[in-house]
Amino acid sequence: MSSETKKILTTDGIPLEVSLKKAERKNKIKAFLLVAPLLLFLIITYVFPIGEMLTRSIDDKMVTQMLPKTYKAMENWDGKELPPEDVFEGFYFDYKKLVEEKTFGKLATQLNFEKNGFKSILKKLQRKMKKFEEGNYKEQIMAVHPRWADVEYWRALKRRAPEYTYQKYLKGIDMYENEDGKIVNVPEDRQIHRILWLRTLEIAFFVTLFCFLMAYPIAHLLATLPMKYSNLLMICVLLPFWTSLLVRTASWMILLQQQGVVNDFFVWIGLVADNARPEMMYNKTGSYVAMTQILLPFMVLPLYSVMKTISPSLMRAGKSLGGTPFIAFWKVYFPLTIPGIGAGCLLVFILAVGYYITPALVGGASGTLISNQIAYHMKSTLDWSFASAMGLMLLTGVLAIYWLYNKVVGIDNIKLG
Amino acid sequence: MALPKYTEPHYRIWHYIYLTICSAVFFFLIAPLFVIFPLSFNAEEFLVFSDGMKRLDPDAFSLRWYKDMIYGTKNPWGLATKNSFIIAFFATIGSVILGTVAALGLSSRHMPFKGLIMAVLISPMIVPLIISGVAIFFFMAKAGLAATHLGIILAHIILGTPFVVITVTATLSGFDHSVTRAAASLGSDPVNTFMKITLPLILPGVISGGLFAFVTSFDEVVVVLFLAGLDNTTIPIQMWTGLREQLSPTILAVATCLIILSTLILVTAELLRRRSERLRGINR
């Protein structure tokens, strides 16, 4: 074969292969440029900040940088007994500088996360410090408040020495590093986060189950009814779907209150006595009922769109081959709806795990979820690094569910709307 | 769904049980919305049906809460409504433009790393809202955009674009690319082709994506709770504070208006969906 016949040239004299590749590359760049603005926007405003949550949750530089002299002096302290004079001296000068810069409040907040009671003794020290004399700071500081003579508080201070820490993650599952550096459980009566994680999983699981049990029959009805009836019934699913979440929560608050419609009805049919109306709101029941109704459309829609594609003749074929309607349903129809079930359950479960507004309004103390705890730390205690740590733990959980789902069912099998 | 005459009795019974279950579920879905209407016309201050209302006594009904919603002293709803519409309007415009352009690129068969990029683009829809809220708050605080309209608009663009990307990509999946090539062969430049040929054809998808983005922004409360200052209060924020603190019937008046709005949106969305399915040639 000679080289002239091997290479096909375009009219410009460039080999066709090269020219094609060039066009291909141009198309790739063109397509990418279209996506680029949104991609860039999301990376800057969304993806990076989520990454920043990671650094924030392990970053502990603030305290270290606020008390440089203290931590320098602490390097030689074994942490068994009260620290020597040079630690006290370093702490005195560090703290004096913070008071002058008026940033000591931040330190007080941070140290109070580490050990309760730090805030008040720091405030007291700030007031008394003006009259301090030079030298022998150990005696003078210890005289301010007996807690300053308690080695526990100095150990707590030393624990904040490293620039990075995983303490917040331990705290998120009710564990902590004790004085000997061992990771132990928080005493049983003070555990709150484990209960919250378990409750979040429990509520999400049961809400998903209830949604599935309720959505399956109506999705089937919607898919098998003639168009003109099913369109009308579809409104019952779509109207709640498009209605504001807060409106729907408000209606449940009215229905479930003690003098509310549901309780009135129970009294009327004689289920409960008028003076013994059950509490259905501000507890778990409230969360269950309201979340199930609110998330139900997210289960119905994927199920419906899958069932719509199943030909009714398949069921007829099953029956004609000798199956009872139940066997035909179980062996033929049900397996075909699995992609819809998967999509619906995944959607509802993931929405439920991250639910915040409804539990906060109707859940009371026993019906709140992990999201409420994150919001509480973001807005009330301002422990943002802890909120970040909890948020990332939740995110990891959600991503793990996606991964698992992808392994078992395959994300491509998902059908939405 | 009439049963054939030869159906055996126990299947017949089962069928009626099934229909009863379905009716109960439909009732559970839709009935809670209807409790709001009558109570919003309550003449009294409580959120329960008064004896007068049960007797359908005309004196027990009034428009006082609607008047309070509009003319009440120091009432926050005027500002909240204005803010909600401004924020939702600009957030929708932003989401639609960014989302549609991105969807055009994504549905090109030349697009590299399609799966990965798609995952990033729809991630705001997948990540629990509270986490998005925390992350967006950190960004806005750093950029000095917390407690500004612009900050909230940008946040809502983040949350709204996934819907536009998904609906427009779906519409484009049934799009016949030979029409754009035909336009190009007739001498039209790409921008002109997009405006005159592509856009009119994918418009139903774009608008329904926009509707989703609008509702997302208009309803959104988790992220706004982190971002809003006193001047940026929105309807959901006011509802949230109202439901937590002074549970007044004015909230129900607002809720009734919101239900009417969502009905309008539902009708529009349904009409669009049917039109776009017709265009895609899907007969379901």
In words, what does this structure look like?
The complex is a heterodimer of chains A (417) and B (284). Chain A is mainly α. Chain A is 70% helix and 1% strand. Chain A folds into three domains: 3-58, no CATH class; 61-163, no CATH class; 193-413, MetI-like (MetI-like fold, Orthogonal Bundle). A two-stranded antiparallel sheet of chain A has the order 1-2. In chain A, helix 2 (16-58) crosses helix 21 and helix 13 (245-256) packs across helix 15 (284-307). Chain B is mainly alpha-helical and 284 residues long. Chain B has 13 helices and no strands. Chain B has helices spanning 9-34, 36-40, 51-54, 64-71, 77-106, 114-126, 129-143, 149-173, 178-185, 190-219, 222-227, 235-244, 249-280. The mean pLDDT of chain B is 86. The interface between A and B is large, with 87 and 82 residues.
Residue-averaged pLDDT of chain B: 86
Broad structural category of chain B: mainly alpha
- Within CATH, the superfamily of the largest domain in chain A carries the name MetI-like
Please write the CATH class name of the largest domain in chain A.
Mainly Alpha
Q: By CATH's scheme, which homologous superfamily of the domain at 84-247 in chain B applies?
A: MetI-like
Number of helices of chain B: 13
| Coarse shape of chain B | globular
Shape of chain A: flat
Strand order of the largest sheet of chain A: 1-2
What separation lies between the terminal Cα atoms of chain A? 57 Å
How many DSSP E strands of chain B? 0
CATH class of the domain at 84-247 in chain B: Mainly Alpha
Short structural summary:
The complex is a heterodimer of chains A (417) and B (284). Chain A has helices at residues 3-6, 16-58, 61-66, 68-74, 85-101, 104-114, 118-128, 137-144, 151-159, 167-172, 193-224, 227-242, 245-256, 261-268, 284-307, 312-320, 325-336, 338-353, 357-362, 370-379, 384-408; strands at 175-177, 183-185.
